[in-house]
Amino acid sequence: MTNMVYLIVKPFSLVQIFFLLGVRSVALATLVFWQLLKLIINFHVDLCWHFLILGITFMTLPIRMLTALKNEVKLERLLNEMQIQLENLVWENKELEERLQIAMEDRKVIEMILKEIEEEHEKAVTRIDLLENEELKEENMRSNEVQGKTLWGSKSHYEKDVRSGESILIDTDYGSTSMHPSYNRRGLSLSDPEEPHEKGMIIWEAEDPCVPLVAALFTVVGISLGSVLEFFSAIRNRPASDAVALLSINWFILGTLSSRTLPVIAHMLAPSAIRIAVQLVGWLVVGSVATPNSQHPTVVRVGRRAIKFHDHKNDITTSSDRRHHPTGRRPPVNEYPCGVGLSPHIDTHSAFDEFIFSLSTAGPCIMEFRRYPEGTWCHPTASVNEIHEDSPLLSSNFTRKAIFLPPRSMLLMSGEGRYAWHHYIRHRKVDPVGEKAIRRSSRRVSFTFRKLLLCIQEKLLQTDFGTI
Ligand SMILES: O=C(O)CCC(=O)C(=O)O
Ligand SMILES: [Fe+2]
Known about the structure:
Blueprint: H1 2-146, E1 157-160, E2 167-171, E3 176-179, H2 181-185, H3 211-234, H4 238-257, H5 262-290, E4 298-302, E5 305-309, H6 312-317, H7 319-324, E6 333-337, E7 342-345, E8 352-361, E9 365-371, E10 399-405, E11 409-413, H8 415-419, E12 421-425, E13 430-433, E14 436-439, E15 443-452, H9 454-462
Antiparallel strand pairs: 1-2, 2-3, 4-5, 5-6, 6-15, 7-12, 8-11, 8-15, 9-10, 9-12, 13-14
Coiled coil: 72-134
Pfam families: 2OG-FeII_Oxy_2 (PF13532)
Transmembrane segments: 12-37, 49-69
């Protein structure tokens, strides 16, 4: 029975086994197929993606190369600028150090001068003391003389210096010989045997060289004599003239005696009088040669920049100048030592006409131009449009342009460039031009050709001063 059942069930179980095997095989095949498909698709997608990236990379290569080159140039320029700035800083530092050194040397010199002055002062004080003592002694001697005593008997006496012909005071109290030529020159030395007033008395002795006093005395004498002559000629009654002459002499004596104050006044007035006299002589003698003209230009120093002006009046009126200079006058000449610039300015609107030419010679430079936004730039009637330190124009709110001015080049400023843009030259020794750095030469000289407005020319012709 069992065998029978086994025989009947066996085929069914075999069928079941085959069926399960088939199902599993199909499932496995499907899975393998699916995995293979996925792999193939992934591989292609990856391949496409890589090709795409490669293509993009390849296509953008020139652009990226150009950008890299540009960046490199930019970096190089920045590096250059930084180097220039560094050089300028080093130079400024050096200059500051030099200035400090000069200032320190000046200080030393001033201290030395101060010391010398102090020493001189001390010497003067001791000399004054000495002179006072001598004066006292002389007073004593004089009083002794008045009392009938001779000077030779006293401790101090005067001798005549044979070589110089001047009196020397031998002061035995001090144990030394001190010489006071100017002190005694005008005095009447009692001990001088050749002196006509040998036995006379010193009435009054002037201190120090006193040319003004002598001049004053001569003036008084002259005035007195003049008045005597005047009276003589005016009065017909001759006998009265004697009285007048006497009166005049009295006046003269009175004037001489009261003239102790004259040296002080003369001392005060002498320098101005001498200056006026020298000027007068200068005008009279060399006036025709030395009058300011084109051969005597005025040199003005603005910082380290030197500007040479010519006399505009002469320039305007000289036709030969007009022939040589189209503006009708000689141009100011600016001299810039290396490293020296020009502060931002607009040439005076109210004095010069529209066209301004600047001829560069000797060395190159970069002139920069600034334009400030509307409302900040100076009014055309302003006389000098320089920017001062506290000016609102010092803000960085402006447009900037730069022009390279090689030697023997001419710059023309007109219109907006003339009226609305400030021009200036930086204070530095090296100028960047593109990627290059141009070192300034030891000096630059420029000639500014500007035509004076007619009203200014007329004003100049009316006045003696022809310089603006
Ligand atoms: O030096 C120069 O070229 C310009 C001088 C100047 O601007 C001036 O004299 O006003
Ligand atoms: Fe200027």
